[in-house]
Amino acid sequence: MSHVIMFLPINNINNIKNIINNTILSIINSIKKKKIKFCFMKPIIKINKKNHKNFLLSKDKFLNIKYSEHLFFFEKKEILIKELISYYYKNINNYDIFFIEGIYPINNNQNFIFLNYEISKALNAKNIIPLYFNKFNTIINIKQYINLIYNYLKYYINLKIYSFIIIHFNIKKNIKLKKNFLNPIINYIPLNLNLISLNIINIAYYTKLNIINKSKIFKNRIKNIIFYNNNIKYNFNYFNSNILILIPFNNIEKIFKICVYIFNGININSIILTNFNKYFTNIKNTINFSFFLNLPIFITNKTNFKIFKKLKKINFKILKNDYKYTKKTQKNISNYINYNWIKDFKYPLKFKNFTPKQFLYKITQLSKKANKSIILPEGYEPRILKAASICVEQNIAKCILLGNPNKIKKIALLNNIKLNKKIEIINPKKIRNNYINKLVQLRKHKGINKIKAYEALKDNVMLATMMLKSNEVDGLLSGSINTTANTIRPALQIIKTSPENSLISSIFFMLLPDKVLIYSDCAININPTAKQLSEIAIETAKSAKLFNIEPKIAMISYSTGNSGKGKEVEKVKEATNLIKKKRPDLIIDGPIQYDAATTPYVSKIKTPFSKTKGKANILIFPDLNTGNTTYKAVQRSANIISIGPILQGIRKPVNDLSRGAHIKDIIYAIAITSIQASKNK
Questions:
Q1: In this structure, are strands 268-274 and 224-227 parallel, antiparallel, or unpaired?
Q2: Tell me, what's the pLDDT at 69?
Q3: DSSP for 158-180?
Q4: pTM above 0.85, yes or no
């Protein structure tokens, strides 16, 4: 797997944007020197009225990803994040490092900062934070601010902080921070004022000035811009170098005074003569005079105020035709790069936990590849209709609805749902009789006859289960209206458990803000025995691997290790030992409390020798009461996507929905059912 590094601006630093841009290029050059394959990604560029396109940068190519600023305000930023994740997975084996430049605030819109956070979390990126400090900030101030930012981003926003880049006027040595606080790529850059100057030729092009003296036009650089006024001597003392001065064209006396200042050693780099009018009487004298000064001089018919207003809008950035300056800046910054940081990224990641968005992307891609048909017996439920339409439209699965076609279309119309034409709708009345004899044969040992079979098949879940048994569909999903018992009972009667399992159990995929956890069993088994609990855990590990999740199992209890006693603790302890004997290859710990299982620093205190190290991704609950209560509390309190219950231990994919399921929950449940079906054969 490729590493992801994100250059994450957290405030508007346009004043030194050229330093930031050159810093990025310097870091990239340091990666190139070590012959590491990398991809540079710029998710969004500043948008103007003529160009409503944003680009993804790979090497030297810009790829249009069909995302623009206005989409952000219509809450369609998911388009951008999905495209980034898609691009990442398509090229995951082509690069060692994905280097992403975060979005700078556009028009001081801080919402883009939060979009940066979402991109970073979606790709599980390690973040490099540039921080700029002016000459009034002391070392103590800087340390306090860095600590504040570090704690906010790591513990409140849940971002991975890799390094800070500190840009400062007065620092002449590294800032010593806490051990293990960060891995310095560039610990500091002493800000050289020569690095934030502008080339005069670029200023001339930007403000559309006419040139009347080209002397040193490609050499001189500007740091300060002033008007000619009564305090001109004071201004020269305060701004003592690289000055651009604006003077009205018709004031020949002031122009001659400027000549005197230049001869006396004032470092004026260039002059703009404003308010130009070709009918001025002294025009020839002024132009002739300009050639005696060995510096660039420009004329414009605009006023001082208009030119100054235009100059204030210049964005300090890398200029394409300013190669010498760019090279000089990068060379200066390169002196402060610590090349040892690259060692952390030289080898590909062996494994990393999926972020929620990566997981959702992965299951939709796997489902598209599977291309399975999923039967949905609750054809009159609007949420099912909407989810089925989205799934068919996005090629996630082939969806089949059970119900009267006219009634379904009417419900869709009333709920403003555009029912996809590719959805197959089957009227139960027209096919029910086809399964009577088969149901009688399957259930004759229970005394069922044709009349009872006909009555049983009036239930659409039973009818859908018979279709699955007959291999007419690949998977079944129900539960948005029906209870779990109504969904599972026909499956137990008709489909039955797989040969290696003695029971059916369930899992929930809990998509927390920064990780994906699997909860089991939260829907089926009321009070499993130690043996059943071990079977549930082993089957859950298999399910995790089906979705490319490396299982780390925690057997949850109210006690950690030997800290508590009781029947429930002993049951969990026995189940853990059974699993270790059956599957010694699995990473497992138990009995263990929830906080020690999922929080590294708590694990260090309570279970310092735990194999899960506070990073368990499978949580096995001791009974239904604990599991069901926990999953619903987490789902509703944290307002997260919870996919399930997904059934396991059954011969064919039959899955249940929570009756409170949202449309997104249903879509992803359909995708998971499709993936299970692809692995079932």
A1: unpaired
A2: 46
A3: -PEEEEEEEEESS--SPPP--TT
A4: no
